């Protein structure tokens, strides 16, 4: 069976929740390439098999950016942002997908701080995204985050009509 068909089957088994068939298929692959390993890491990670995911990742001789990003995404989806960050920090070649996976992981698993909202408002101001700035202001009010001088300045900066 070709590597492409094996990977497709692994993904199929993962989607229907048949991890025992996915594990058997993976075990029967005579020469596991990086694509097959990444597919299995993804399948196991989606179902919470953290120990097995990590063991497989650590056994891989060749790791591509996709391998690293799959691990980051798996840990984030499981709510383990600390482990995701350790993998991210160890990743020798971080790309936009790596960064997005970490940002997504933090956004899904952590409540934004005042510092985060100040940074977001500043970005909105520089982009001219006034509507997004107002949305963030509403979020801060709904979450009852305590405003400080930095946040107040970010509000003023975001709403200033003199932005260029």
From TrEMBL:
NCBIfam families, per database record: PPR (TIGR00756)
Organism (species): Coptis chinensis
Protein name as annotated: Pentatricopeptide repeat-containing protein
GO molecular function terms listed in the Swiss-Prot or TrEMBL record: RNA binding
Pfam families: PPR (PF01535)
Stretches forming PPR repeats: 33-67
Keyword terms: Repeat
Record-level GO BP terms: RNA modification
Gene3D superfamilies according to UniProt: Tetratricopeptide repeat domain
UniProt entry tagged with the keyword rRNA-binding: no
């Amino acid at each position: 069976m070709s590597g492409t068909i094996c990977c497709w089957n692994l993904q199929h088994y993962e989607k229907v929740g048949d991890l025992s068939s996915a594990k058997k298929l993976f075990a029967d692959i005579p020469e596991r390439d990086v694509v097959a390993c990444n597919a299995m890491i993804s399948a196991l990670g989606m179902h919470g098999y953290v120990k097995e995911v990590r063991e497989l990742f650590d056994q891989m001789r060749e790791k591509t950016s996709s391998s690293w990003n799959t691990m980051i995404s798996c840990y984030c989806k499981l709510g383990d942002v600390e482990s995701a960050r350790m993998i991210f920090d160890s990743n020798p070649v971080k790309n936009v997908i790596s960064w997005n996976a970490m940002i997504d992981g933090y956004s899904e698993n952590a409540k934004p701080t005042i510092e985060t909202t100040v940074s977001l408002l500043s970005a909105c101001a520089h982009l001219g995204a006034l509507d997004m700035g107002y949305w963030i202001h509403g979020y801060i009010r709904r979450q009852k985050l305590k405003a400080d001088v930095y946040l107040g300045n970010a509000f003023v900066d975001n709403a200033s009509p003199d932005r260029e």
